[in-house]
Every structure is written in structure tokens, then in C-alpha cells.
Write a structure and sequence with these properties.
about 75% helix, mainly alpha, elongated, 6 helices
Length: about 190
């Protein structure tokens, strides 16, 4: 049957594309290890800012607020830097789980991962679309013209990846349903 090889190929292409995107983002910045590694982002790197500058600027902001808000600002800056590191770790988890899935998981059992990748990519696309001014999905007061332009590019990238993931998910899911349809109801 022609459809089965196509959905398998779609799953593998989707997994490969999301893995390459996550690898590119993680390798280019390295913010899993230090949130100030974000200075490697092209629009920041062009300014000549260093990791030390980043750290100094973040710390310099604290005395600029009233004394009773300094603890709050310190914690807010920590949460932002912590979130940056967690995001990078999520991208690393996508890479690791993709490698494991392609190496060891049968196509009929890939649908949970493909579903998770799809929703991960969809929500990333929604944030990028919001930053680009295309979708009212939350807000970010720090969006710059460069960030908006980057959001537009990533909307296109996610728009290429997501159809592969959803077609692969559907094919894996239906293949799994074919496999379990013969089992007694209590085994499903």
C-alpha cells in the first residue's frame, strides 16, 4: 500500500526536522549551561555584548528599583534566566528522545512522541506568530523589530515541520489501532 510508506517517511522527516531545529538552536546558544550564552544570538552578538556584560547588566538593574522591590526583581531575573535554561534542556530532550525513537521504537508505537512533538511545535509556532504580530497569543513587552522578524521566519519553519509530524502521528496511531483491534477489550 502506497500510504503506509508515505506516513512512515513523513514521521521520520518530521522527527529529523524538529531534531535539526532543536540542535541548531541549542548548539548555537548553549544557554542550558549559562543563560547569558544567549549573547550568541545573532542580533545580540552583533552588538559585541559578552557573557560578562550580560551578567553585569542583569545585576545592574536591581539597584534601579526601590529597595522594597529589589528582592522581587532579583527573583524575577532569576526566573527568566532559569526559564531560559529549562527551555534549552527541553530542546535537548527533544533531540535525545528523537534519537532513541528512531533507533529503537517501531513505527506503530511512535504516535505518543509524534503527538507531543506536534503540540510542542504548535505552541512554539503560536509564540513565534505572536512575536511577529500575526496571532493574539499572550504578550511579550520585550519584542524588538528583529525579534518580530525572527518570529516570522520561525512561523514558516514550524509550518514546514508540523504537517510531517501530524501525518506521521496519524499513520502511527492508525497502525497501532490496527495492531490492538484484535486484542480483547481488557487488553486495550
Amino acid at each position: 500500500m502506497f500510504a503506509e510508506p508515505c506516513v512512515k517517511i513523513s514521521a521520520y522527516v518530521g522527527i529529523t526536522l524538529i531534531t535539526l531545529l532543536c540542535l541548531m538552536i541549542t548548539a548555537s546558544q548553549g544557554n542550558a549551561l549559562d543563560p547569558c550564552n544567549a549573547v550568541k544570538f545573532p542580533d545580540v552578538a552583533a552588538s559585541g555584548m559578552t557573557n560578562e556584560d550580560c551578567s553585569a547588566y542583569l545585576k545592574a538593574a536591581i539597584p534601579l528599583v526601590s529597595e522594597d522591590q529589589q528582592g522581587g526583581l532579583s527573583n524575577l531575573l532569576f526566573v527568566w534566566s532559569f526559564s531560559s535554561r529549562i527551555e534549552a534542556c527541553a530542546f535537548l530532550a527533544v533531540i535525545g528522545s528523537a534519537i532513541y525513537t528512531v533507533a529503537f521504537v517501531k513505527f506503530s508505537s511512535m504516535h505518543p512522541l509524534l503527538c507531543m512533538y506536534f503540540f510542542f511545535g504548535l505552541t512554539c509556532m503560536m509564540v513565534d506568530a505572536n512575536h511577529a504580530g500575526m496571532l493574539p497569543f499572550g504578550t511579550n513587552p520585550m519584542v524588538t523589530p528583529e525579534a518580530a522578524a525572527g518570529g516570522s521566519v520561525f512561523v514558516v519553519v514550524w509550518g514546514i515541520i508540523l504537517p510531517f509530524l501530524v501525518v506521521g502521528w496519524y499513520g502511527s496511531f492508525t497502525k497501532d489501532m490496527d495492531k490492538t483491534a484484535a486484542l480483547p477489550v481488557t487488553m486495550q
